[in-house]
Amino acid sequence: MKVDLYPLVFKPIVKDRIWGGTKLHSLLNKNILSQTAGESWELSSVPGDVSVVANGVFSGSTINELIVKYPSEILGTKVYGQFGAEFPLLFKFLDAKEDLSIQLHPNDELAKKRHDSFGKTEMWYVMQADAGAEIIVGFKEKASADEYLHHLKNKSLPSILNIIPVKKGDVFFLETGTIHAIGAGTLIAEIQQTSDITYRIYDWDRTDAHGNTRELHVEQALDAITYDVVASQKKYETAINNSNPVVDCSYFTTNIIPLDGKMNLAKNGTSFTVLVCTEGSFTVITDSGSEFAFAMGDTVLLPAALTDFELVGKATLLEIFIS
């Protein structure tokens, strides 16, 4: 039986965080009442947090259920061959009203050995930043485990880390092992491997409403940290109605599309494509002529079986696939 696949969006999985705020509601129009909503998981197959379709005839089905039924049609022939019936990426929006903890993620080898999980290579796209907003990415200068532990003990770790002012449109690619922290006043679109493994190493000595501190992973982090200086910020072109390359790694490829009018998007069936709308609104027109309207804050999965689209509107889009 032939199935008519279509662009899919999913019900947000909202995570309250000690550092969260209200921008997911006020700027991205998520139906959230919490004053401390830190994360909206837009497309996830992480156990316990599996996304549910929010639109069309598949509404109510999980991404995992659809992949089991239509593996290569959803994932793409190459992605299905590589990962099996598992969605390999996780898409989130993050609202940092306060500074996030200083943290890092293990590589695939360590994550598999310790947690039976993938590692967590990720990228950030800054959707909005308050005046003076900053992030932390890596060390200012090449460091060592001893130096790191010394500054951690003396609560001076930020003094040896690379603190970068951020603005809307900035992109950072964070390889595993890179120490990082999203700073207060920043709204981020995040693309990452399907993993929820984080080593938190410093949390600004803050406590929750009950006076409890959050767990740290100082010892686990020691052999997972990259002590070299890293160059994480990515520059890119902004040619209108074009897929402008930003990140191309073995885990995912991300292009930026400044859409103004109409643009054709052609695919070959080897990978799904995800469009994250970071600004404006747009319509996807499939080769059958069906139209699907989306806006800022929408994360849209284009199944691999759909290979020809027309994009119409005025928007900034992140285009993500596995090459």
From TrEMBL:
<dbReference type="InterPro" id="IPR011051">
    <property type="entry name" value="RmlC_Cupin_sf"/>
</dbReference>
<dbReference type="InterPro" id="IPR049071">
    <property type="entry name" value="MPI_cupin_dom"/>
</dbReference>
<feature type="binding site">
    <location>
        <position position="122"/>
    </location>
    <ligand>
        <name>Zn(2+)</name>
    </ligand>
</feature>
<dbReference type="GO" id="GO:0008270">
    <property type="term" value="F:zinc ion binding"/>
</dbReference>
<protein>
    <recommendedName>
        <fullName>Phosphohexomutase</fullName>
    </recommendedName>
</protein>
<dbReference type="GO" id="GO:0004476">
    <property type="term" value="F:mannose-6-phosphate isomerase activity"/>
</dbReference>
<dbReference type="GO" id="GO:0005975">
    <property type="term" value="P:carbohydrate metabolic process"/>
</dbReference>
<dbReference type="InterPro" id="IPR014710">
    <property type="entry name" value="RmlC-like_jellyroll"/>
</dbReference>
<dbReference type="InterPro" id="IPR014628">
    <property type="entry name" value="Man6P_isomerase_Firm_short"/>
</dbReference>
<dbReference type="InterPro" id="IPR046457">
    <property type="entry name" value="PMI_typeI_cat"/>
</dbReference>
<dbReference type="Pfam" id="PF20511">
    <property type="entry name" value="PMI_typeI_cat"/>
</dbReference>
<dbReference type="InterPro" id="IPR051804">
    <property type="entry name" value="Carb_Metab_Reg_Kinase/Isom"/>
</dbReference>
<feature type="domain" description="Mannose-6-phosphate isomerase cupin">
    <location>
        <begin position="247"/>
        <end position="320"/>
    </location>
</feature>
<keyword id="KW-0479">Metal-binding</keyword>
<keyword id="KW-0413">Isomerase</keyword>
<keyword id="KW-0862">Zinc</keyword>
<feature type="domain" description="Phosphomannose isomerase type I catalytic">
    <location>
        <begin position="11"/>
        <end position="117"/>
    </location>
</feature>
<feature type="binding site">
    <location>
        <position position="180"/>
    </location>
    <ligand>
        <name>Zn(2+)</name>
    </ligand>
</feature>
<feature type="active site">
    <location>
        <position position="200"/>
    </location>
</feature>
<dbReference type="Pfam" id="PF21621">
    <property type="entry name" value="MPI_cupin_dom"/>
</dbReference>
<feature type="binding site">
    <location>
        <position position="105"/>
    </location>
    <ligand>
        <name>Zn(2+)</name>
    </ligand>
</feature>
